[in-house]
Design brief:
The chain is built from eight helices and two strands, in the order H-E-E-H-H-H-H-H-H-H. By secondary structure, it is mainly alpha-helical. The chain folds into two domains: 115 residues, no CATH class; 102 residues, no CATH class. It has a two-stranded antiparallel sheet with strand order 1-2.
């Protein structure tokens, strides 16, 4: 079996896991379940379990759509440059299936246990996801769909490359810091670290792309 087919099969299996889990436990759920949680992981809103009957299928459809959209971006990219990043797109799409399927499992499990585990489970999980994306960012070529897409990176290939080299390092380091800080620090402080790092790794590459473009164009 070809590597591409193996990846699709693995993605399909991971995509199916939360669906199977949900079908298995739904009948045994109480009619009223926890639907929203605070930073401490404890529920602060309850509702009817039938709400899950549309949220879970919706998340599964979104996961399925995102996987194939990103994987086949080279075929629809008007710049015709996304093909240079085809392997990277496949890795990103596979990682997104893992992340979104993991999110579904967290949601379903919280319905059973009444605890979401935002601080010690989901936020560290997100940190590892960001670190993984950061590790791939330097290999993403200029395109309209994936990456740090600012007017300056899309205009100039050198600006795109420099911005993604910086962004990749920041996302990787930021993701590791998020994972460690949310595991070790108290929930509220860990969440502050999480928000702060997200803001930094999102804004700094954008600002850098503008500065780099202006300096090199001049």
């Amino acid at each position: 079996m070809k590597k591409a087919n193996l990846t699709d099969v693995a993605a399909l299996v991971i995509w199916l896991l939360p669906i199977i889990y949900f079908i298995k436990i739904y009948a045994n759920l109480p009619q009223t379940i926890a639907l929203h949680f605070g930073l401490d992981g404890k529920p602060n809103r309850f509702g009817d379990k039938t709400e899950l009957l549309w949220t879970m299928p919706l998340l599964s459809i979104v996961t399925f759509g995102i996987y194939f959209l990103i994987k086949y971006l080279p075929k629809i990219d008007p710049k015709k440059t996304a093909g240079y990043s085809a392997e990277t797109f496949k890795k990103i799409s596979f990682a997104l299936v893992i992340f979104l399927s993991g999110l579904q499992v967290f949601i379903i499990n919280s319905s059973v246990t009444g605890y979401f585990g935002l601080d010690k489970l989901f936020l560290p999980f997100m940190g590892l996801f960001f670190a993984y994306l950061g590790n791939l960012m330097h290999s993403i070529k200029s395109n309209y769909f994936v990456g740090i897409r600012t007017p300056w990176t899309l205009e100039d290939p050198d600006t795109w490359r420099a911005t993604h080299q910086l962004g990749g390092k920041m996302w990787f380091i930021g993701g590791i810091i998020i994972t460690i800080s949310t595991l070790l620090l108290p929930p509220k402080i860990g969440f502050i670290f999480f928000i702060t790092i997200i803001v930094i790794i999102s804004l700094v590459p954008v600002i850098y792309s503008y500065i780099y473009f202006k300096e090199h164009k001049q």
